[in-house]
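Here we describe the complex-level prediction in full. Unlike the single-chain runs in Section 2.1, the two entities below were treated as one system.
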Amino acid sequence: MKILLTILLICVPVLGQQIGNPTTQQGVIPARGVFAIRNARIVTVSGADIESGTVVIRDGKIEAVGTAVNVPANAQSIDGRGLSVYPGMIDAGTNMGLVEVPQGANGTVDTSEVGELNPNAKAITAVNPHSAHIAVTRVEGITNTLTAPTGGLISGQAALINLLGTAPKEMAVVPQFALVINYPRIGFGGGGFGGFQAPVNLSETLTANERQVDRIRKMLRDAEAYGRALDAYERDKSLPRPDRNVVLEPLVPYVRGQQPVIFRADREAEIRGALKFADEMKLKPIILGGNDAWKVASLLKEKNVPVILTGVFSLPNREDDAYDVLFENPAKLQQAGVRFAISTGDAGAEVRNLAQYAGMAAAYGLSKADAVRAVTLYPAQIMNVADRLGSIEPGKMANLVVTDGDLLEIRTRIRYLFIDGRPVVLSSRHTELNDAFKNRK
Amino acid sequence: MKRFISKLLFLAIVSALPITAARAQRETSSETLIKNATVLTVTRGTLTNTDVLLKNGKIAAVGKNLNASANARVIDATGKFVMPGIIDAHSHSMLDTINEGTLAVTSMVRTEDVLNPTDVDLYRGLAGGVTTLNLLHGSANPIGGMNSVVKIKYGRPASEFLFPGAMPGIKFALGENVKRSSSPNTPGVTRRYPNTRMGVEEVIRDAFTRARDYKRTWDEYRAASGKDKNLIPPRRDLQLEPLVEILQGRRYVHAHCYIASEILMLISLADEFGFKIKTFQHVLEGYKVAKEIAAHGAGASIFADSWGYKIEAYDAIPYNAAIMTRAGVVVSMNSDSDERARRLNIEAAKAMHWGDLTEEQALKLITLNPAIQLGVQERVGSIEVGKDADVAIWNAHPFSVYARVDTTFVDGTVFFDRQQDLARRPELAKERVTLEQAEPNKPPARGQSPQTPGRRRPPTHEGGEFIEEERP
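The structure predicted for the assembly as a whole is:
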């Protein structure tokens, strides 16, 4: 807190105003403008680090980066000496904004629809911009999350959002980024809880599993046919007009391979199953979970399928796995040339610890630079937004974090935060409760 | 279910492998000299270029240029860090079962009776520098079962795990878990009392009222039996005996709690009956009533930053450790999870990130403070001559996210060593292949699954607080 106060004291004279708006004023989002972070260490991520340079932000975008940058006369300036600028971190495997309190408060849970097949459930519809989780997360340097529904076999569509805004539309970077499928687990129901009881033997298990895969296959084929029928009608209006179908319609771009399909799959059998299924259906797959991805590395590489790893801090799947098998998973994928990102895989509360997930991977073999990429540029590339997010380059969205040290280190503090070029005050429900009680006598 | 596929192997055999290896590992010299390390003593600051001599299970010397006898194992720890073994004041590791949840008061049951020393998560904890655990009963009832304090002597029989001299303790619990807030109403089944925080207070009050009477009955019997040898002793009550020990100050109370009002309730009840709460566990709203907790003399054992997973956790803030520490509360950082237990160093460092604790204060959260809370502070929790040789060597400062444990000692014996672990992996992989190809492990014809031995423990120990409502 002392640091926060110091920041306020420092930036008031420099900027002539407080940067951003307190989260208590939820109806107001901070204005864009022209800002210059000067004489800071700049970790561009996409290129070499700049030991002392300037980043200029204008109207939401990064305008210039480098050592010889002209600071616009009207820029609000931040003295970056001793500080480092990083791109904001991205967690590509959350349910941020879809759930406030998972246990004992069902009314706050919007992750999972009734039934097994819900391609029309769109996360962006239900994201709560005023969730306490959002400010709690962003003040730790996470500027973006992929927010995904979780239920059934086909869960719905995930949204890539900025962790700032007063309406889902303001937050959306890609409102419908991917279709999310829980690839059926062998010996388990179709993802989440609610799976059926254990079948008594292996052949029944495999049959049950195949039945679930079949349900997904059938729906995707229906969507293909639906798309063809719509196209045919567009070309030839003399044909019978197909009825519109709100469930199948959103699937069309996914079954045509135009947009990615995220398969939740942790174990080897499910990852291989998902890859085979994606081949068969000509989908554009991304694996989410990926605890056993190191076992499937050569195939993932061959198919060029990226993995969003959510299990760095999970216990190993098997009792005879090496103790560090999941700490090492990212390093092994890196060595094998598999594209990957590191995620917390958390609903919301734990997402703020994303840096430690990446740091742990670096403790077990991943280079520190790759660990930073695994929570910035790599997820941006996997989500096809590397032209907008994930590194510090002119033209990109100004989602920036200014720290007093190594981004992934636990003791490092975030000093300034920009999302969409808007300066964000570093307060949250937690800083507010701290302020309210820390001096209680 | 989660481990269905792995059950296709002979798990019992495979999972025994690390134990065999651990057994081989501990055949090390009874004297080890760790040379030229940065030593985080916890009580005497950080010492650079310092040696630590472990001898006969104790820390025999800490200083520069120490000498050891000729047969001592010498470890060059240049560039490395030595810290005391981490103490986890809230664990359910190695417990075959955690909750006796059928009654509101189960003070008669003991976690000591259900210790499974082959739990592989113990080894994973050692690999995170953890050496001592407080194994608590779950939080299904206002007064739960008795806990066990153990050292992680993985590979040895359960009896050798028990920490001699640790204070006996017991689990209490308040709030949502006790109210069974997340249990569905089953038609035809009466809910277990209590159902409110009012009822929780009454259950504890009733139990201590009975315990006080029971104690009086025994006191009167003992006083009178000196004069009259023919008196019949009162019937022993195994439920009330531990509560009498609490009244006598011979058993520590570790009370699971969340919100400010229930914390104040228990303090006031304990004051009324004349006993102390040794630790409040979780105590997520402790920061709201820090001065009352300090005034009672209770400790607090908390999560670094878990929050929002249920209503009573919605006001949790990561500044909890700092606010309570500054109010004079002895605070520890626990795992309550086999997963989190592996990275308690990170959890402690968070108290520097949120709340500005000093490095020494933050180190104490996982060393000396939990030792105090378990009554073992004379034995462990800092690097001092005469204390037990429970230490870990880290390849970087343990508060760095990039740090990793090289070697963990318990009573001077190596129970985890990364190089040995790495060295035996190829051999284990070979053995696994052999086992998978063995005739008894092949799936029989007609797609039947092979017979597998039943598991001795519940399928998962991780994150119990968040998965099973009655766990911690």
